[in-house]
Amino acid sequence: MLVFQALKNREKMGSMLSLGNFDTIAGKKVLTGGSLGLDVKSIIEGTVFPKKLEIEKIEDSLSITNKKSLVFKELSTYVKNLETSASLLKNAAGNKDDIFSKRNVAATMGNGVGADNYISISVKNGAPIENFSIEVQKTAKAKIQQSWAFSSKTDGVTNDPTTPSSGEFNAGIFQINGIDITLDEGDSLSTIQDKINAKSSTTNVSAKILQPDVGQYRLILESNLTGVENAYTLNDPSNVLNNVFTQDPTNNPSLDVQAAQDAVMVYNGSITVTRPSNKITDFIDNITFTLSEETKAGDIINVSVSPDTKSVHDSITQFVENYNVLTMFIQQQDFIAAQKPDKDETNDEKTTRLANLKKDSLVKTIKSNVKNILTQALEGLPDYNTLASIGITFVKKENVVVQENNYTGVLVTDDNKLNSALSDNMEDVKKLFGLNFTSDSANLSIGAKRGTNINVSSLKFDIDVNRAAPEDRVRVTYTSPTDSSPVTINASLTLKNPDDVTQGYNIQGIAGTILENFDFSYTGNGVETINSSITQGFGDKISNYISELNKEEAFTKAQKTLTDSVEKYKKEIEKKNEAMDKEREFLLNKYGKLEALFRELNSTLEFLEAQQQYSTK
Questions:
Q1: Which of 155, 156, 317, 492 has its CA 20 to 30 A from that of 106?
Q2: Radius of gyration of the chain from Cα atoms?
Q3: Cβ count near 260 (within 10 Å)
Q4: Any idea what DSSP says for residue 581?
Q5: Would you state the pLDDT for residue 617?
Q6: Which of 198, 194, 205 is nearest to 153 (CA)?
């Protein structure tokens, strides 16, 4: 009965149970759409689809974080550029790149001849600003002598001293500037030249052979250094030179080719400057004079050393440009964040839109603090105390439109006003950007570390190392800028070297006070009252603010947070991919067993069909 029932069912289902088609899932060949019409691939992919959505969401977060990391690196570059331009404008002690110390020099003559025919003048940063005149009365010269003439430079010209020959050398020892030179019998002019030059580094005298007339060779001695004090001396008690360098009024009247001579120039018509060298570096600090030719009587070289206003102008405008680039970049983050998704938006456009820094706390802090610094009026500077006083102002919003966006807080420069300030009041402009500190005691000086909170112009330091409380050994008093009342704060005092009190003390500002992040050097006896004045300009404040951010590793930490997030997302994606692959594997095994059952059923039906055919014969 079972056989016949199976055959009846078989007639309803068809002659065979269909095993479906082969397809690929997760790299494996599988049956899809089996005997019961199952689409295995669709079933498996549908089952793991929620996990794929989770992975895609994390992948989006990964792309956004990667993009945000690049945006943050771009931001840090703009901040660094602002710090660099600010550092050029702060007149920090020992800062060789201090732009306000750069100088131009010009030298002219009234006779139409170029001054560079007579002198070249170079200046370093910090050279005094002045106009003066120069006359070149003498140029420095080295002592030069020549020998009598010889018919050959290779034949022997050195004789046995017992049989001397006029106009030739004798074997033996002579001295140049106290250094022994030994000549041997048979030495040629070339050999003698080589022996003298072998000792040139100690004698400061060189030798060379010239041929003024055909067939006449002369040995030339010349000091390596110019000036009277560098003229060499020959000591020849054994008559080794045999008078070959001695003038003979009849046969050799001009053996002293050139006498040693010092350089002589006259400054402002009254001060005579004499040096052994034509290069004079020690007359005026940071100015080098190189004399090349004597001026004629009555000719004067007019020299002008002036501030390099163009370099200062360019540095200030670069500072403004770097601030604007940073400000506009930060505002761009707001514009990007405000964009609405578009139906045709690509994945890259979506990533860019979502990878903005609008809500980043560090970015907000930088934007706020930098602008607050630049909008201040500086204490202690009566004339130029704001950027506006030299022609740098914050432009109105509607006047700055870039790519259809209105930017706020952007600076614009009035070149005419800036150039006028630089021309008329360079020192005041310098104070507007740099740090200026003076005190009535040489024992107190300001250090390299500085904060940005100074908003007063005078500080009174009351120092007493004998006070019981360490934190009370330095009291600093100033007048409050808000209500003109006296304010006293403390600062720490520590020995620079605990084993050597003579090296002095470090005075450091305390957090939360106007001297936060400031340090001073004190070299007094430990009990002293010192009055000081201080102003801190925009360049110094901006430079120190960003420098402090770097010391706190603000950018490094923020970048690390992003990098850690990237690694976290990568691990999550890897973990979820593994879980999805395992689920696929489980489903493949499950449906594989079902297909195996279908095949077994087909085999049974084939057997029953064969039995039916056999029974009907």
A1: 317
A2: 46
A3: 19
A4: H
A5: 61
A6: 194
What single string gives the DSSP state of each residue in 238-250? T-SSTTTTS-BTT
Helix axis angle, 347-354 to 40-89, nearest 10°: 50
Residue identified by tokens 């925009």 is: 538
Identify whether the C-beta of residue 319 lies closer than 8 Å to the C-beta of residue 85: yes
Q: What is the spatial distance between Cα 523 and Cα 500, in angstroms, rounded to a whole number?
A: 12
- From residue 143, give the alpha-carbon distance in Å to each of 69, 150, 228, 278: 70, 22, 8, 14
Residue 7 has what pLDDT? 40
Structure tokens at 481: 């800028």
Q: How many Cβ atoms from other residues are within 10 Å of residue 441's Cβ?
A: 16
- Whether the pLDDT of residue 351 is over 50: the answer is yes
Q: Is 163 exposed, middle or buried (0-12, 13-18, 19+ CB in 10 A)?
A: exposed
Crossing angle of helices 538-551 and 426-433, rounded to 10° = 20
CB of 167 within 8 A of CB of 186? no
- Chain segment 222-252, per-residue pLDDT in tens: 999 999 999 999 999 999 999 898 866 666 6
Q: For residues 283 and 122, is the Cβ–Cβ distance under 8 A?
A: no
Cα 86 to its chain centre, rounded Å, is 13
Long-range CB contacts (within 8 A, 24+) of 353-358: 354/64, 355/64, 355/65, 355/67, 355/68, 355/71, 356/68, 356/71, 357/68, 357/71, 357/72, 357/75, 357/330, 357/333, 358/333, 358/334
Residue with the larger pLDDT of the pair 475 and 553: 475
CA 617/CA 606 separation, integer angstroms = 17
- Which of 83-87, 394-398, 557-561 has the highest average model confidence (pLDDT)? 83-87
Please name the amino acid found at residue 39. Answer: D
How is residue 227 written in tokens?
């000036």
- Strand segments, DSSP code E, in 285-372 are 287-291, 301-307
CA distance 393 to 387: 7
Orientation angle between helical segments 309-338 and 415-424, nearest 10 degrees: 140
Rounded to the nearest 10 degrees, the angle between the axes of helix 415-424 and helix 426-433 is 110
Give the 3-state secondary structure of 125-185.
CCCCCEEEEEEEEECCECCEEECCCECCCCCECEECCCCCCCCCEECEEEEECCEEEEECC
- Buried-state track 315-349, b at ≥16 Cβ within 10 A, e below 16: bbbbbbebbbebbbbbbbbebbeeeeeeeeeeeee
Region of residue 367 (left: phi > 0; alpha: psi -120 to 50; beta: else): alpha
With left for phi above 0 and alpha for psi between -120 and 50, is residue 43 left, alpha or beta?
alpha
- The answer to whether residues 490 and 472 touch, using CB atoms and an 8 Å cutoff, is yes
pLDDT recorded at residue 311: 93
CB 410 within 8 A of CB 326: no
Residues sharing a CB contact under 8 Å with residue 216, sequence separation 6 or more, in sequence order: 149, 150, 151
Alpha-carbon distances of 312 from 92, 318, 498, rounded to whole Å: 15, 10, 43
> 3-class SS at 258?
strand
Classify each residue of 488-498 as buried b or exposed e, where b means 16 or more C-beta atoms within 10 Å of its C-beta. Answer: ebbbebeeeee
